[in-house]
Amino acid sequence: xxxxxxxxxxxxxxxxxxxxGSELDVVAIVDNDKEKEGTIYQDNLIISSPSSIASFDxxxxxxxxxxxxxxxxxxxxxxxxxxSKIYIPPKKDIKDVQRPFxxxxxxxLAREIIKKxxxxxxxxxxxxxxxxxxxxxxxxxxxxxxxxxxxxFSIVNLPLDVEFETWLLxxxxxxxxxxxLNIKSKIVDNKQVSFILFFKHESYKTFSISISLRxxxxxxxxxLPSGGMWYSPQKFFDxxxxxxxxxxxxxxxxxxKEYLEFLYGDWKKxxxxxxxxxxxxxxxxxxxxxIKSGDGYKEIM
Length: 301
Fold this sequence. Notes:
- It is built from 8 helices and 15 strands.
- The chain is α/β, with parallel strands linked by helices.
- The strands form 3 sheets. Strands 6, 7, 8, 9, 10, 11, 12 and 15 form an 8-stranded mixed sheet that branches.
- Helix 4 crosses helix 7 (256-264).
């Protein structure tokens, strides 16, 4: 049985252990959060500092964190770990992913939500742009990606006289859907930085709809929920385009194909099992800064 060290103690590690724990001999689990050091993780594992890695006998270090790029660099450059001993699993292995859109009914529901929210956003001049995997699917596949697990929008340059939360509640009230959407917002530094729409219904696989705020800092539009891990050059979100998709209109970033190249590199080639290192450009976000800024979630509806 392979001896491994898990790097990360968040939900990613729990999901990975749930899926593969029986196949591994976990000799240690480490985390950059100093407040966790010395505390007990599951199965009586004590969380260690990354500086203690050299004291363990292991075959591989598995990075079970969304900070994979930064952690991989830390292991190589600061802790002198051989790159051949570092493994970054696909995102699906560290997320509670059921691939909901493989179910035809659920995929159709996702299409309807994208179309209807986009319709009211365009009608009310609200800059609600499809983003990330949702944008990729619409542009490359002309559909929701089968192996995606959520719907992504970004909101930018919101008119000052519009309260987005109020608009969102009104828009959802107008949408005729077979499910009841609940809403919560993520709070960072006492500011709402994203809205998460979710539901439970026996006829559909569960997925979420994320609406993330982007803010201009210097010459970049920062994805606020991630603290800037995801960002883009200013030109892509300074303005937007409206394109036709499946007989409906949706808002997309300006020069959206160039934006997809910035985000994913070779975006035209489908890849099911994407890892955090597959993103062409990620901002550097310190874990401790991200943790300190998070204030939790607020239930809205």
